[in-house]
What we know:
Elements: E1 5-11, E2 21-23, H1 29-35, E3 42-51, E4 54-66, E5 71-77, H2 85-96, E6 103-109, E7 114-127, E8 132-143, E9 150-154, E10 157-158, E11 163-164, E12 176-179, H3 185-195, H4 199-214, H5 220-230, H6 240-255, H7 266-280, H8 291-301, H9 303-320
Parallel strand pairs: 1-2
Antiparallel strand pairs: 1-6, 3-4, 4-5, 6-7, 7-8, 8-9, 8-10, 9-12, 10-11
Amino acid sequence: MPDNVESMMYAGQVPWHGxxxxxxxxxxxxxxxxxxxxxxxxxxxxxxxxxxxxxxxxERVRATVRRSDLKPLxxxxxxxxxxxxxxxxxxxxxxxxxxxxxxxxxxxLDGGRKIWILAKLPGDIVVVGADDVIEKYLLLVNSHDGSTxxxxxxxxxxxxxxxxxxxxxxxxxxxxxxxxxxxSATSRIEEARRALGIAHARxxxxxxxxxxxxxxxxxxxxxxxxxxxxxxxxxEQPSTRTRASRERVVSLFTEGLGHAAIRGTxxxxxxxxxxxxxxxxxxxxxxxxxxxxxxxxxxxxxxxxALKRLAHETIRHQISA
Length: 321
């Protein structure tokens, strides 16, 4: 599925992917909705099948259609209820603070089938002894094609290199909240507004873990083992691409951006993988003009995010063994 950006806004400094409509500073949810081109509604329409003038409705499914241009977005079950963009923004506002100018980016992917909102939370995480700053964000993602639930994810971003740290968080410790697209969505949104009060507490946990990673020694041997786990292949005859990926990740362990003060630590290992996943790894696309957009989608929602979560899980296992 092509995850190209259809529309987007961002605040302040140009993000690493370099795309979207710029505004001078973070904005409110209402402003972000308009600036990102997301002020449209989704309708549910019958799905018809047949030949020529003879058509009949297909049972148990409906089509999601964008009202503004009648663009079909997906085929969903009969119990599906769309969460409108305005409701998603309102939901996010209730979580992070209604009316506050804290929305950093927002936009739609894949022709409106997916939308996202990224909000900046107050207070940064600073690694002790390294002057390494991690900004705290919450990412809300939603789909209008039935492919995903409405989800909110804790999304730390390391300032020096713009690594997006999609950590492998456990649901029991507050990784986020998901809402199914059913007729009970409205009541579950109310539940989410209460439950997501744990976001700030979760960031306290993340801050403590980052400090621990930054103070934990991590050897070259462990880094080589990590790379082999992330890029598995025939041990007797690894492919050229696999060898290149392993070697690049290992080199970033010492040469990565901002690693001078954290070199030789588990924190450097995690950021080596994040830098590779977000900025170095080859992204396949027939249209090179979409490269930055596909990197963005992958960093948050795709294979790059999965690679970083696996790295986090593996590192935690290595240092606790």
